[in-house]
Amino acid sequence: MSNTRSGGRILIDALLAQGCDRIFCVPGESYLAALDALYDTPEIDLIVARQEGGVSYMAEADGAMTRRPGVAFVTRGPGATNATVGVHVAYQDSTPMLLLIGDVGRGDRDREGFQEIDFPAMFAPIAKWAARIDDAARIPEYVARAYATAMSGRPGPVVLALPEDMLTDTAAAIDRTRVERPIQPADPALVEDAVARIRAARNPIAIVGGAGWTAETGRQFADFAERIGLPVACAFRRQDAVANDAPTYAGNLGYGPSPKLVARVKNADLILAVGARLGEATTDGYELIAPEHSGQALIHVHPDPNELQRVYRADLALCAGVEEFATAAAALVADATPSALGAEAHAEWLAWSTPAPREAKLDLGPCVAAMRERLPADSILCNGAGNFSSWWHRYWRYTGLVSQLAPTNGSMGYGMPAAVAAALRFPDRQIVALAGDGDFMMNGQELSTAIRYGCRMLILVIDNGSYGTIRMHQERRYPRRLSGTDLVNPDFAALARAYGAWAETVEETADFAPALDRAMQQDGIALLHLKTDVEQIGPAATITGLRGG
């Protein structure tokens, strides 16, 4: 179809053609023409947040859940700089995302006009593609390319700057049809080679996660691993790639992994990495698995050729979609006899993920156990960065995609906005936002967004009066020299009630389960303010222990 419309109308029509059903935004005068077009577009749900960082986090989380770009719209200058945080998450977490930025008029460019920034230059290092649209007639071309770029290979963010006057132009634009993620079949000969090497290995292990995973991929890969008895570890904060009740699930890598899992990785003679980049967190600073991995064979399966042989020397590099690889590999081992390795690794993880009582007034381990007993198995847990999350990473049992929204780039303030996106996308599922005190204060204002749009969720604020992760590192390197890590916090329960949520404060372990029961009876948003002691800085670490006793 070709007809004359405003640039704003052409843009919204182009998004509709790509299947966009939700946009997260903070409004700005630089894209009023697009907002006006949205007034006549009930097919797109416009979610107005309270800060652009929350907007970009919400869009990133939405992309992680749908596997199509989550869409964020912000204004120029401060709006765009605030939104960079979610773009960086999308880049490092391999999430399809589209950030649209209202920009200065074309005739005012290069004068350092009001809030002017060269957005293609600014976002180039943290986006798959960053561009400016100067011709309204080409909007459908740019939007279709943006979707294709964001979803193909290793998914990631795309940024498009939209000059204000371009959006008010009228043009005859040719609409484009919906773009789909390209199928990337796995070479049958290479899959056979990979499976043969895995089955011939004495002590193999798989590390999964990263780009391209779906619920079906997780099921197919778990089936493949079960048939041959292959232990499966998940990369950092990719614990829902494979359902944790899979018979060979071995736990997660990253910060605070099981020592027995670490030993398995170190002793492996073959490592199968599927979708994972084997980044710094997953490999403990590239030391658990070295880029040259002497004495270990590496089979690396990834949908993006640019990731293969980039950091790690691969003995067999297979460029393919991870779902296509998992399906092909499972078909080759239909009649296999499994080794005992997978079952042994799973038993070790079960023991590791069962909390034991500790000397703490409010012990988070039993709290997670109480949540496992009461919450639906398919609950979606959303958390930002902080030591508080390590209790749930260790003791919660994720049921497969999508049940974990957590930034692998270690970004604080993510949990609350991600939970809003999850509650809107899956209103019938239990959504849990997990946040430390420092973490929550970075985007806690999105409680207002959650209230406005009728979200239903449980929020846990774990308050130890400290930037706990930094305090942990500080005590390791500079014991007793406390500097910059103490916090003075509000009454989080009172703050939540001010927004219109139900809330309680919990200070002792025995009080948590009854408070959780009351929270679960609420129709909307319930917040539990958990006041913990910074002494118990992690599930297996104390301040006293870090100081040497």
The average pLDDT score comes to 95
CATH class group of the largest domain: Alpha Beta
CATH homologous superfamily title of the largest domain: Thiamin diphosphate (ThDP)-binding fold, Pyr/PP domains
Largest sheet: 6 strands, parallel
What structural class do you assign from the helix and strand content? alpha/beta
Helix % is 25-40%
Identify the CATH architecture of the largest domain: 3-Layer(aba) Sandwich
- N-to-C CA distance: 73 Å
> Strand fraction band?
15-25%
Number of strands: 20
Shape: globular
Spatial strand sequence of the major β-sheet: 3-2-4-5-7-6
Rg (C-alpha, Å): 24 Å
> How many discrete structural domains?
3
How many distinct helices?
Answer: 21
**Spans of 5+ residues with little confidence (pLDDT < 50)?**
none
CATH names the topology of the largest domain as: Rossmann fold
Short description:
The chain is an alpha/beta fold.
